[in-house]
Amino acid sequence: MSDLLLMGPGPSPVSERVRAAMSRPLYGHLDPRFLRELDGISEDLRLCFGSTAPLTFPVSGTGSAAMETAVLNLVWPGRRVLVLENGVFAERISEMARRAGGELRRLSFPYGTPVDPEQARQAMEEFRPDVVAVVHAETSTGVLNPVGAVAQAARDVSARLIVDTVTSLGGMPVTMDEWGAAVVYSGSQKCLGCPPGLGPISVAGAALAERPKDLPVVSWYLDLGLIAKYLGTERLYHHTAPISMVFALREALTAVREEGLERRFARHRQASSALRAGLAAYGLGSLVRPGSELPSLSVVSAPEDQDEGRLRQELLEVEDVEIAGGLGPWKGKAWRIGTMGEGANLDPVVRTLESIGRVLGRHGVAADVREARRAAEEQWRAVSPALRA
Ligand SMILES: Cc1ncc(COP(=O)(O)O)c(C=O)c1O
């Protein structure tokens, strides 16, 4: 197990320093020393989110809990919600908005293509939503969505914007203030290099003001108004914070800050382009519209005429490398390979390529491992000056 390399769509590999932080002796959740650490997390998260919102913190739960926090606090019966869908995570937002009693409109785009901001704008002008939701980096398809253009359209119709940055935060620029977004959320287990269990979120000051006083948030646990009383100057107990997870996130964010965001983004770009160059040498091409690929996740065609699930199982059991298959219409047809956090480096990319090459070879698929490695290293060397510095 110790040599297992996590190159799926999350969780990503976790460094020794982050794992060590999880075994620190505990503080109580109202201990001023612990609260200072939470404040430090808030500051570091604001940097990653490109946000100045005071209410920025890790939700006690995974990315879906942060997603549900965003939806349940902004959506109530009768609120008009437009969800821009091009994969299963946007579909999950729609399901949550439906359960919250929102009047839901879904604008769907084919898997592998980004949201079209012009069509999104038309839908907004026609439907006049109170809330618009979009996924920045759609993990089910590997597509980067044009959040900047969507945000402009949402501002033009005065809609509140929710952005899912689960697979982008810490791996590429996220600019909440610039977008004018109401709520942006993420997960700890992807580009931040932390285990799963926390859902970073940033909430703009005005985001919660429109809720009618007689309609409390249906979830007590995820009610931002109540949680804010614990995080703010009142320090009122709401629920027991998951202390060890918070320590892990604190350490992971310290590592992000030490590396510097620009450098980290460059490293993610280089790792994903190196990986894709190597996979192309095996004939495994990207399924994403060119120009919309993610720096954190590559979605490529699975080897033809093969039981791709069996190949992945062998990759895991024999080679100790985890990758994932396709979702929805791409089940059985796609491979999803992450380059997130610690996984966004040349060594894990090369090890993944070599392991895939060996598995393919054992199944009679021609795979030139040396060529894949050469192509990946060449891409990696074409690094940006930021990374060489
Ligand atoms: C884009 C996106 N949103 C939401 C989620 C849900 O996060 P979690 O599985 O941590 O609950 C994921 C998980 O992979 C995701 O990729």
CATH architecture of the largest domain: 3-Layer(aba) Sandwich
CATH class of the largest domain: Alpha Beta
Most strands sheet:
7 strands, mixed
Uncertain spans, ≥5 residues at pLDDT below 50?
Answer: none
Helix-strand makeup class: alpha/beta
Count the E strands. 14
Q: Write down the CATH topology of the largest domain.
A: Aspartate Aminotransferase, domain 2
User: How does the overall form come out from the CA principal axes?
Assistant: globular
Overall pLDDT score: 96
Radius of gyration: 21 Å
Task: Describe the 3D structure.
- There is one protein chain.
- This protein is an alpha/beta fold and 389 residues long.
- The chain folds into two domains: 16-258, Aspartate Aminotransferase, domain 2 (3-Layer(aba) Sandwich); 260-388, Aspartate Aminotransferase, domain 1.
- It is built from 14 helices and 14 strands.
- The chain has helices at residues 16-22, 32-49, 63-74, 88-99, 117-127, 147-156, 176-179, 224-231, 243-259, 261-281, 308-317, 346-362, 369-381, 385-388, and strands at residues 5-6, 55-60, 80-85, 103-108, 131-135, 137-138, 143-144, 160-164, 183-185, 198-203, 297-301, 321-322, 324-325, 334-338.
- The protein has a seven-stranded mixed beta sheet with strand order 2-10-9-8-5-3-4, sandwiched between helices. A three-stranded antiparallel beta sheet has the order 11-14-13, with helices on one face.
- The longest helix has 21 residues, at 261-281.
